[in-house]
Design goal:
Nudix hydrolase domain-containing protein (chains A, B); 6-stranded mixed beta sheet; globular; Nucleoside Triphosphate Pyrophosphohydrolase; homodimer; 4-stranded mixed beta sheet; 2 domains; 12 strands
Chain lengths: ~300, ~300
């Protein structure tokens, strides 16, 4: 009944690995069209075939190749990122209007960057985020400030989350993102955040969305989440700053472990907690049978061009 | 002239990636025979063709398939690990006697475990290690206890190293390994080590040995190094406990950065330092252009069955 840590990691990093099983990998790829941008050889993401079929693709900007299973944005090779983004935004707006896509209901029109093979900015899309674990430490050990997501959230309602988490806006640096989200989501004073937050690396994974995400099932969502720790003075209590969070609770290590095993955490928040546990010596080669598999899956090498901030 | 952090990581994680360039990957694989054990489908490692040719392979225990480029240990599928290890040890002893292999001169006869696809112990070979960074912290920041390897070491003489590092013996747990090596290499009192050392995960990489390693060039050496931090009281000074280390010096972050850039660190010790810098917020998405590539390469998913301790 209880989920192992590896099961939690696999739920987040759920896109098959070529080297594990070529047949499974190839079978899975058949469900998607590769997203490409004219002028670049790289696959920038995968779009579910059923989405490609229903999507309104204006012919002046898009070419669908059903045999090769590609969707190509045909903007000129030397188009500006702004122009590409505008074309994509117009396409999304048209799709929102059609109202054929569950995942677009309540579309927030937030923009996130997509990068080319040389790290150059190509267009806006969703890919990068920042997650922070706030904790207090006393003689009894560590305790974690864990929020419960609002039951009205479109995605993963009522699930447990990392203390602060959010998507990085275009042109935003990861550290600035986490400071901003700290103010918005947890009412953490900016000056304290700037002095206390420590960058701890990142987790990368390739997720296939399931029913808990809301919206279409099977959407491919490869992500980079920059990871931060913040040790809080016990007197500083995170408070919901917007309507995204129901409440914050201070949980012991054991309580967090139990909530993880019960599957209460949003999948990518579970892996950020597992990464914290590994970095702080709470999860070790001696007490976690799947230690090595977990560590490499938390840092998956994504087959897409990635940002350099 | 100076080496970037990504160059240092690539020097350590130097075995090509299939997904980066299939032609380069395939061309590289042609240089090796796959090492297999009768009864298991998995490739357990890669042996350089020139080594396979010169190696004395007693026909009763080994089959060389030059077309498939495999070396198979033909012990019965239900052989004990002890028996397999004995056969391998006899083969190595015979090769040492022939004296045709530079890398075997000064062979220390240390034994390390190899695991099967279910994590079961198959035989003894070299793969797992533990590395520890000892540091002190004061108002001016962090300082690191960095040893210089003895100029008489067979491998990487006179290069800089992590404070404590060593290979894990068969049946040894990673934490016990680092405590033991701490006593042997740095005279760190066992009781203080047990109370102070914190497990921080591991780095995994697939290395191709170059001239600095001593011995044959091109040997494939995939490794798992468990990573530990130990914050030392300034009064506790590491002292060489054996003849492996020339001296310990206390270096600032800047001095370590410069030594890294000059290529003074042993390749796999450089990546352990880079991992420390990332985990402690010294290397971030904002100051390291190759941040994401470095992070995933430090946690390469190795295509061999791995241990569960």
């Amino acid at each position: 009944m209880n989920k192992s840590n590896l099961e939690l990691v696999r739920e987040c990093d759920s896109f098959p690995y070529y080297e594990d099983n070529r047949a499974v990998y190839t079978e899975n790829l058949k469900k998607y069209h590769a997203f490409r941008v004219n002028g670049y050889d790289d696959t920038l993401g995968y779009i579910l075939n059923s989405v490609v079929e229903k999507w309104p693709w204006p012919k002046e900007h898009w070419v669908i190749d059903s045999a090769a299973q590609t969707v190509t944005l045909t903007t000129p090779a030397d188009a500006t990122p702004e122009y590409r983004s505008q074309v994509v935004a117009e396409s999304i707006a048209a799709a929102v209007k059609v109202d054929a896509f569950e995942v677009l209901r309540g579309w927030r029109n937030e923009k996130y960057p997509v990068y080319g093979p040389g790290g150059e900015f190509l267009l806006d899309m969703e890919r990068y985020g920042a997650h922070m674990t706030c904790y207090v430490e006393d003689a009894t050990g560590l305790k974690f400030w864990i929020p419960r997501r609002s039951k009205n959230k479109q995605t993963y309602p009522s699930m447990l989350d990392n203390t602060v988490a959010g998507g990085m806006c275009t042109n935003e640096k990861p550290f600035e993102c986490i400071v901003r989200e700290g103010v918005e989501e947890a009412s953490l004073p900016e000056s304290i955040s700037r002095a206390t937050i420590v960058a701890r690396g990142c987790v990368t994974y390739s997720h296939i969305r399931d029913a808990r995400a809301g919206g279409e099932i099977g959407l491919s969502q490869p992500e980079v989440e920059y990871v931060y720790d913040m040790k809080l003075d016990p007197s500083l209590i995170p408070l919901p700053g917007d309507n995204e969070v129901e409440e914050f609770n201070l949980l012991t290590v054991e309580e967090v472990r139990e909530a993880l095993a019960r599957g209460e955490f949003k999948p990518n928040c579970a892996v950020v907690i597992i990464d914290f546990f590994i970095r702080h010596g709470l999860l070790t080669a001696e007490n976690e049978p799947d230690f090595l598999d977990i560590l490499s899956r938390l840092h998956r090498r994504l087959p897409y061009p990635l940002a350099s901030h």
